[in-house]
């Protein structure tokens, strides 16, 4: 770690992501060198990166980050948030787990993309033991109200 830290300070044109040297001039994370394989990480709750945008999340994320609950926070169709490709990547990644652990997907907004994905892939979700949690509560704060879910561990 010390060597990685020193080399990133001595060469400001390069940076490190997960210990792999990358070129910051590249806008696409998929053009960087692949991250070495390692064991998956199990967590209770994970937010899907970048508002569920397809820019940074692919099936590899879901193969490596295995969560009981994934939060989908995207609500900007103009920017592809949430991305259908990312929701499909969840199905693809989970199909490689080799164990049928329960996964709950928690969308923070009711979007057309999420509804269509849910309807079109419902059988696959059941096969992979994925449940999509619909919000049944509303939180009111000052002049704003929004849907909410309660999760207990």
Automatic annotation (TrEMBL):
<dbReference type="GO" id="GO:0003779">
    <property type="term" value="F:actin binding"/>
</dbReference>
<dbReference type="GO" id="GO:0000226">
    <property type="term" value="P:microtubule cytoskeleton organization"/>
</dbReference>
<dbReference type="GO" id="GO:0005829">
    <property type="term" value="C:cytosol"/>
</dbReference>
<feature type="compositionally biased region" description="Polar residues">
    <location>
        <begin position="20"/>
        <end position="31"/>
    </location>
</feature>
<protein>
    <submittedName>
        <fullName>MAP1A protein</fullName>
    </submittedName>
</protein>
<dbReference type="GO" id="GO:0030425">
    <property type="term" value="C:dendrite"/>
</dbReference>
<dbReference type="InterPro" id="IPR026074">
    <property type="entry name" value="MAP1"/>
</dbReference>
<dbReference type="GO" id="GO:0045202">
    <property type="term" value="C:synapse"/>
</dbReference>
<dbReference type="GO" id="GO:0005874">
    <property type="term" value="C:microtubule"/>
</dbReference>
<feature type="region of interest" description="Disordered">
    <location>
        <begin position="1"/>
        <end position="34"/>
    </location>
</feature>
<dbReference type="GO" id="GO:0031114">
    <property type="term" value="P:regulation of microtubule depolymerization"/>
</dbReference>
<dbReference type="GO" id="GO:0008017">
    <property type="term" value="F:microtubule binding"/>
</dbReference>
<dbReference type="GO" id="GO:0007409">
    <property type="term" value="P:axonogenesis"/>
</dbReference>
<dbReference type="GO" id="GO:0043025">
    <property type="term" value="C:neuronal cell body"/>
</dbReference>
<dbReference type="GO" id="GO:0005875">
    <property type="term" value="C:microtubule associated complex"/>
</dbReference>
<dbReference type="InterPro" id="IPR036866">
    <property type="entry name" value="RibonucZ/Hydroxyglut_hydro"/>
</dbReference>
<dbReference type="GO" id="GO:0016358">
    <property type="term" value="P:dendrite development"/>
</dbReference>
